[in-house]
Amino acid sequence: MRKDSRLSRVLHALIHLHHYGKPATSDDLGKMLGTNPVVVRRTMAALREQGYVSALKGHNGGWSLAKPLTEITLYDVHKALGEGSVFTIGLTDEHNNCLIEHGVNQALRDVMQEAEALMLARFKQVTLANLASEFDKHKLAV
User: Fold this and answer.
1) Residue 72, Cβ density class (10 Å: 0-12 exposed, 13-18 middle, ≥19 buried)
2) Could you name the domain of life of the organism this protein comes from (predicted)?
3) Residue 101's domain is classified under what CATH number?
4) Measuring CA to CA, which residue among 36, 44, 38 is closest to residue 16?
5) What gap in Å lies between CA 112 and CA 123, rounded to an integer?
6) pLDDT score recorded for residue 94
C-alpha cells in the first residue's frame, strides 16, 4: 500500500524555509524533496492561499514563510493541503447486502472517526516551531 507523505514533506520544506535565511526557489525545494518543481509550486500555492508562505518573483526570488512558525500548526498545513482522512484504510462495499459487512464497516468507521478526531485535535496543538525546536536540539548536540 502506498503511503501519502505529502504532509511530512511539506512540513520538512517549511522548516527548511525557516532556517534558509533567503527565499528558496521551487527548483531548490524540488531538489531537496526529490520531486519536480511543478509539484512544489502547486503545493506551495495552496499554502500561499492560506497565508502561510509568500512568493517573490525575479532574481533572488522564491518561497518564504509569511507567518512565524509559532503561528502555523500541523492542522493548518494538513487543511491547506486539502487532505481528507488521515487514514488510508478503506471500507469494503463489495457485498452491500451482507449484514456482517455492514457491521464490520460501521465498527471500523466508528473507530477510525474517533482516532482521526483525536489525531486532528493533537495536530492543532503542535506548531511548526515545536518541530523546529526538535531540529535545533539535535543540531546543538552535534
Assistant:
1) buried
2) Bacteria
3) 1.10.10.10
4) 44
5) 16
6) 76
Helices (H) and strands (E) in the chain, counts: 6, 2
CB atoms within 10 A of CB 124: 13
Query: What DSSP designation does 59 have?
Result: T
Cα separation, 51 vs 66, in Å, equals 6
Q: Cα separation of 111 and 6, whole Å?
A: 24
Tens digit of each residue's pLDDT (9 = 90 or more) over 84-100: 667 766 677 777 788 88
Report the 10 Å Cβ neighbour count for 61. Answer: 13
Would you call 28 helix, strand, or coil by DSSP?
helix
Is the per-residue pLDDT at 4 higher than 80?
no
- Give the chain's domain count: 1
CA 115 to chain centre: 18
Tell how far CA 57 is from the center of its chain: 24
Does residue 52 contact residue 76 with C-beta atoms inside 8 Å?
yes
Q: Is 1 within a domain?
A: no
Q: Which domain holds residue 112?
A: 6-141
The 10s digit of each residue's pLDDT in 17-44 is 998 889 999 999 999 888 999 999 999 9
